Amino acid sequence: MSIDQSINDFFAPISAKAFDIIFYSVPLTADIDVKLLLVWILSAAVFFTLYLGFVNFRYFKHGIDVALGKYEHDTDDGQISSWQALMTSMSGTVGLGNIAGVAVAVSIGGAGAVFWMVVMGFLSMSTKFAEVTLAVKYRYHHAEDHPERISGGPMYYLRDGLNNRNIPFLGSVLSVMFALCCIGGAVGGGNMFQANQAYKQVLNATGGDASFLAGHGWIFGIFLSILVGAVIIGGIKSIANVASRLVPAMAAIYITAALVVIGINYANIPAAFAEIFTQALSPAAGFGGIMGALLVGVQRAAFSNEAGLGSAGIIYAAARSETPVTQGMASMLGPFLDTVVVCTVTALLIVISGAHLDSNGIEGVALTSRALESGISWFPYVLALAVFLFAYSTLIAWFYNGLKAVTFLFGERDSIELAFKVIYCLFVIIGCSASLGNLIDLTDAMLLSMAIPNILGLFILAPEIKRELKDYKEKLKSGEIKKCR
Fold it and tell me: From CA 85, how far away is CA 316, in angstroms rounded?
């Protein structure tokens, strides 16, 4: 039995069981089951959009200014800039979910899933604002052994925020639950799934079944793990420096290629948009068709931008900031760029090219690759490069998320950090050797399970978030907070 087959046999039952538990469903109709976890994530996005007075729309321009550093002082507390925080956060979200995940959404939910994915992207901006604001407010400085290090995220605001509200037991339970889920999400979705899809695309680009890598994913995994280790060894500053350069470059490469193909098929654009809106909203699509598109679109958007999961707060806690709300404003751009821009480009590419009409079952990167190839024959090689860069950036960002969860549970010690670095790199090798089907189930289960404790904490701490926003608006209006660049 090969190494790859042994790994697949090990993960298959684990993935199936985790998926069944996390994605508990209730029947809506004879053909449609509603996943309660997705309702949980959607409810948070809608609630915070309304509760915070449409902060996602009213302060969109202000968020851009903050992200570009126009309100940032060099003396502000933090390790990285607002731009670096945004790019590092996006390097953890702009990954295979934007390519493979969106392709899966279209192949399952049809073109109508695109519309609901975009709607969820806009609503998710409010959830992202809420969790990042709390993450910066409750971030923790390791003054004794490592004064230069800052830790934050849901683990800390669940523990300390709920303790301030005199429910410390609940805070302790939720913070530990989140940390454990975050570690699983980092190793599963942030690591193995990304490594797996990077290997698959390189495999296809080098000859498929005839490639020298066929059946030897572990060889590619070793190479990829070395590249990951070279960056993560330097910590958040090294990760942020790489991400701030890599994310804009890889997004530009991919979006340019996709827009070229969309342009080649410009005659199909009106029909494609008609198909999207018809399947998403038209009574002709039927209740089942509309709900199917909605649920798939929401799931892919949630998986893509990770709003409600709390992962962005872990990174933004290290950003230089005068007030907690400042980084909350900047973080709203993440779901917009990730879901509304990159995911939509992928979806439009697939629908406008008509590649989804030839889809046989659930397809990931292969469907996007076929859509690109329909325009220019060698564009799949561009996709292979984009997939590799997307996966690589996600791998390094999710290492940091997992590390902060590990050190929250076991302490901020050099030995703990070194051990996790080694383990994380080993799972890169495992990810390249496991099958896509098993990893999709495990990825969705581990990543989205982070939303359970995180969103519960956000709901409890919602009045605190609103007070922070109100105070920020007053300071902004009075001129106490003003542009410095």
Answer: 6
Where do runs of H (alpha helix) occur along 285-362? 286-305, 311-316, 324-331, 333-335, 344-353
Pairing outcome for strands 25-27 and 140-141 = unpaired
Which residues, in sequence order, are CB contacts of 241 under 8 Å at separation 6+?
84
> What's the gap between Cα 318 and its chain centre?
18
pLDDT digits (tens, 9 = 90+) for 274-333: 877 777 765 544 445 555 566 666 766 666 778 889 989 999 998 888 889 999 999 999
The span from the CA of 322 to the CA of 3, in Å, is 51
Looking at residue 96, its amino acid is: L
d(CA 32, CA 25): 9
- Exposure string over 263-273, b if 16+ CB within 10 A, otherwise e: eebeeeeeebb
Distance CA 468, CA 322 (A): 13
Q: How far apart are CA 353 and CA 360, in angstroms?
A: 16
Burial of 212 (0-12, 13-18, 19+ CB in 10 A): exposed
Q: Is 358 helix (H, G, I), strand (E, B) or coil?
A: helix
User: pLDDT tens digit string along 71-89?
Assistant: 888 777 878 888 889 988 8
CA distances from 152 to 132, 258, 454, 468, 481 (A): 10, 36, 13, 17, 24
Report the share of the chain in percent with pLDDT over 70. 78
**Distance, CA of 153 to CA of 134 (rounded, Å):** 8
**Any residues with CB less than 8 A from the CB of 318 and at least 6 apart, and which?**
78, 79, 80, 85, 139, 150, 152, 236, 240
* Cα–Cα distance measured from residue 383 to residue 392, given in angstroms and rounded to the nearest whole number: 14
| Best CA proximity match to 342, nearest among 152, 94, 127, 7 | 94
Angle at which helix 324-331 crosses helix 462-478, to 10 degrees, equals: 100
For the range 205-210, what are the long-range contacts, defined as Cβ-Cβ under 8 Å and sequence gap of 24 or more? 205/380, 205/381, 205/384
Between CA 45 and CA 119 the distance in angstroms is 10
The burial of 208, by beta-carbon neighbours within 10 Å (0-12 exposed, 13-18 middle, 19 or more buried), is given as exposed
Query: Would you put residue 229 in left (φ > 0), alpha (ψ -120 to 50) or beta?
Result: alpha
pTM of the predicted protein model: 0.85
